[in-house]
Amino acid sequence: MTQMLTSIERKSRGMNIFVREIAKRKLPTEPDLSSSKLVIEDNIGESIHVHVRNTRLEFSVEDYLKFAECVEEADRRFRDGDR
Predict the structure, then answer these.
(1) Given this model, what pLDDT does residue 77 score?
(2) Structural domains of the chain, count
(3) 5 belongs to a structural domain
(4) Residue 59 φ then ψ, to 5°
């Protein structure tokens, strides 16, 4: 017997039951499917997802923190001219 599930029931049967957006921004548009999408999600202790346009990067929390440090350092070097 096939049973119809509500969207909440379907979501609770899969991974990442609790998802909290950490950041969300609009990006300059380019002709693609999700041209302005930038979303960072905390999957509550499991993983961090970074969505940039049509790409999703998945990190453990530890790896995301390392990645974020690298991005901050790259931004600093870019702004300071890599002095």
Answers:
(1) 86
(2) 1
(3) no
(4) -125, 150
1-58: pLDDT as tens digits: 344 444 444 444 456 677 777 788 887 666 566 677 889 999 887 899 999 888 899 9
Structural domain boundaries, residue 67: 17-80
Q: What burial class does residue 37 get, using C-beta atoms within 10 Å of its C-beta: 0-12 exposed, 13-18 middle, 19+ buried?
A: middle
Chain centroid to CA 82: how far? 28
Strands (DSSP E) along the chain, which ranges? 20-26, 37-42, 48-52, 55-59
Q: Is residue 45 part of a domain?
A: yes
CB atoms within 10 A of CB 77: 11
Side-chain-facing half-sphere of 83: CA atoms under 13 Å: 4
